Design the sequence.
């Protein structure tokens, strides 16, 4: 086995987030389903952006957020994702490399602009997202640096990446390289509607190619098309090595074979914006896993990271997660 240079390499959509507060009327007038993500074309993205109130623009993307939170915990990370050689692409590259994260994917010189995600945060702290994937769809197998994959203890894949065909091929190449190198592969199911679109493929990945699955209760129930969380839990535990299932204020449930760990949520007061909560949870869990912590401690770390992220607007930590974790786990 080659040397481990990275704790986790994330592969996902390189997106710049645009966050703004919105009310339920805005959600309804734009025919959005609260709490979900929908894909939009560039024309719609420009139209919606024009309707949004004052906002915050910052680098995002599910897997990129996870790698950023891992860096805040002290883990060594890398990221693979596609941007365009435009202003937003430069913003994304600067933000992620400034955190000490390796990001060497070459920018596209033509085609669609860098991706953006309009995030509408309602007073109940729910986030409703509209994403223009832009240059993300150009991520392909040639962008997968197998040396980075084989040098990482875990390759972390976001389910959203399964939408574009080229990215799907990149996804498979990375998972295969990680498997052949004896590394672990982790998958986030990302969104219940994403699961609906790719259920058969996701089931195959979970059963045959993934070591760790991250999902919230809606996503895992969608995966197995059941209406009961406990039933979904029993099904997923038979299909993968480890399943980390989040349940919002109910905390999380971790299963590995006959092991079941029920871990309370970390207190977060106030809850301002749930954007990135699942991404941060995955970061905390993977930090624990790659440093040899027991599964219940991995879940605690996930909860600590998620609680910090939902206490403010934005999907990335404002405070040092490493310091928070050290304080709370004493």
Sequence:
């Amino acid at each position: 086995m080659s040397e481990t240079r990275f704790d986790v390499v994330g592969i996902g959509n390189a997106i710049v987030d645009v966050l703004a507060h919105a009310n339920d009327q805005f959600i309804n007038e734009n025919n959005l389903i609260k709490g979900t993500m929908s894909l939009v074309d560039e024309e719609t993205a420009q139209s919606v952006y024009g309707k949004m109130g004052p906002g915050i623009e910052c680098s995002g993307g599910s897997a990129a957020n996870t790698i950023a939170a891992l860096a805040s915990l002290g883990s060594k990370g890398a990221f693979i994702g596609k941007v365009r050689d435009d202003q937003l692409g430069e913003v994304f590259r600067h933000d992620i490399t400034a955190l000490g994260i390796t990001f060497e994917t070459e920018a596209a010189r033509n085609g669609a602009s860098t991706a953006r995600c309009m995030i509408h945060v309602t007073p109940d702290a729910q986030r409703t997202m509209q994403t223009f994937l832009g240059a993300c769809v150009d991520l392909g197998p040639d962008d997968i640096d197998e040396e980075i994959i084989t040098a990482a203890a875990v390759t972390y894949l976001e389910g959203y990446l399964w939408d574009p065909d080229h990215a799907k091929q990149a996804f498979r190449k990375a998972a295969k390289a990680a498997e052949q190198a004896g590394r672990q592969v982790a998958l986030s199911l990302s969104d219940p509607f994403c699961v609906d679109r790719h259920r058969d493929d996701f089931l195959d990945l979970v059963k045959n190619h993934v070591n760790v699955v991250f999902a919230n209760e809606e996503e895992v129930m969608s995966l197995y098309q059941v209406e009961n969380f406990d039933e979904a839990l029993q099904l997923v535990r038979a299909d993968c090595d480890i399943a980390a299932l989040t349940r919002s204020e109910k905390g999380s449930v971790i299963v590995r074979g006959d092991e079941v760990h029920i871990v309370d949520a970390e207190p977060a007061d106030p809850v301002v914006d749930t954007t990135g909560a699942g991404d941060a949870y995955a970061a905390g869990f993977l930090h624990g896993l790659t440093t040899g912590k027991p599964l219940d401690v991995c879940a605690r770390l996930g909860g600590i990271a998620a609680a910090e992220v939902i206490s403010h607007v934005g999907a990335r930590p404002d405070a040092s997660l490493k310091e928070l974790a050290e304080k709370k786990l004493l």
Summary: The mean pLDDT is 93. Residues 10 and 156 are 5 Å apart (CA to CA).
